[in-house]
From TrEMBL:
<dbReference type="Pfam" id="PF13279">
    <property type="entry name" value="4HBT_2"/>
</dbReference>
<dbReference type="InterPro" id="IPR029069">
    <property type="entry name" value="HotDog_dom_sf"/>
</dbReference>
<protein>
    <submittedName>
        <fullName>Acyl-CoA thioesterase</fullName>
    </submittedName>
</protein>
Length: 171
């Protein structure tokens, strides 16, 4: 279970290095559009326990609630190719009492070329009724410690793509 320690600086961004697998690609050797989701979600699932000592299943069991996706916004910039090593970063951009927005993005291995950006919006709901519920306890602590909590009302994924591309060009 996540134990917040005010003396610790928690990184807000996770990072994984993975290879694009043959079985996940189309006949043109591009990563299949739907497979980006698997790569993003698996990378975050691997990194959260390493960085924060938190298995999400522990939060689900303790609070009898989980996040469910209700919106994805994805921008495909450059294809990821079979056999290519890529970097996958993720972070919680924003949260409120019952919702989070997680940003995922993929680059080439050297982090000089943006491949894809995904924003996933998730609502925190009870397992029994599937009704929206508020973040509390260790969930709230985790969000406070690891979130950017940016003003996303003024953000657009297209602007984010442009900003990341510019950042990688500066390199």
């Amino acid at each position: 279970m996540f134990q917040y320690n005010p003396d610790i600086h928690y990184p807000t961004e996770t990072e994984s290095r993975v290879v694009i697998r043959f079985q996940d690609c189309d006949p043109l050797r591009h990563l299949n559009n739907a497979k980006y989701f698997d790569y993003f979600f698996n990378a975050r699932e691997d990194q959260v326990p390493k960085l924060y000592g938190l298995e999400i299943i522990d939060l689900i069991k303790t609070y009898k609630a989980a996040w469910v996706v209700y919106n994805h916004n994805i921008s495909y910039v450059k294809p990821a190719m079979v056999g290519e090593w890529v970097r996958i970063m993720s972070r919680i951009l924003w949260y409120n009492h019952n919702t989070i927005v997680v940003e995922y993005y993929m680059t080439d291995d050297s982090k000089t070329q943006l491949k894809t950006v995904l924003w996933s919006t998730m609502r925190y709901v009870t397992l029994a009724e599937g009704k929206s519920t508020d973040h509390s306890g260790a969930v709230q602590d985790f969000l406070k410690a690891t979130s950017e909590n940016l003003d996303i009302a003024s953000m657009d994924i297209r602007d984010r793509v442009k900003a990341l591309v510019a950042e990688f060009r500066k390199g």
